[in-house]
Amino acid sequence: MAVKPIPDGYPAVTPYLIVHDAAGAIAFYEQAFGATELMRLADPSGKLAHAEIKIGNSPIMLSDEFPEMDHRSAQAIGGTPVSLMVYVEDVDSLFNRAIAAGATEIRPVENQFYGDRAGTLADPFGHVWTLATHVEDVSMEEVNARFSAMV
């Protein structure tokens, strides 16, 4: 049997987060988002060279920062230009759970013109997450009309 070029359980694009204190980040993601740890590989100093978690059906890879390899955390570079979008069954509940676990609200949970109920937060490691529940099917024509009316 041939080896699959994309392993089972992995989408074509998988986020890979570099964090300061990867073990702490895993604990936070478990508490805040219900993540499940899949694996971790630590170097002799105890730093995580590679780890994998799953949130819902989505794997996320992460590691500690290794500046000598030019792998720096969002905190080390003063923020992140990337946001992660996570669809969940109950955005209000999970958003509040993440805040209680130590996340910081950036944008409160509200119904959006495009049919999602969504809010945005920053985790304690400098990464930005938008959590959403799809609450209304909206045609592109209606999305454009609502957007035009909004701006």
Question: Could you walk me through the main structural features you see in this protein, from its secondary elements to its overall organization?
Answer:
- This is VOC family protein.
- With 151 residues, the protein is α/β, with parallel strands linked by helices.
- It is built from 3 helices and 8 strands.
- It has a 4-stranded mixed β-sheet with strand order 1-4-3-2, covered by helices on one side. Strands 5-8-7-6 form a 4-stranded mixed β-sheet, covered by helices on one side.
Q: Tally the helices.
A: 3
**What gap, in angstroms, lies between the N and C termini?**
55 Å
Strand order of the largest sheet: 1-4-3-2
How many domain modules?
1
Tell me the number of strands.
8
Low-confidence stretches: none
Q: Class, according to the CATH hierarchy? A: Alpha Beta
CATH superfamily: 2,3-Dihydroxybiphenyl 1,2-Dioxygenase, domain 1
Strand content: 35-45%
Helical content, roughly? 10-25%
The gyration radius over C-alpha positions equals: 17 Å
Mean pLDDT: 96
Structural class: alpha/beta
CATH architecture field: Roll
Shape descriptor reads: globular
Return the CATH topology: 2,3-Dihydroxybiphenyl 1,2-Dioxygenase, domain 1
User: Helix and strand string, N-terminal first?
Assistant: EHEEEEHEEEH
Tell me the major beta sheet: 4 strands, mixed
Domain VOC: 9-134
Organism: Thermoleptolyngbya sichuanensis A183
InterPro entries: Glyas_Bleomycin-R_OHBP_Dase (IPR029068), Glyas_Fos-R_dOase_dom (IPR004360), VOC_core (IPR037523)
Protein name: VOC family protein
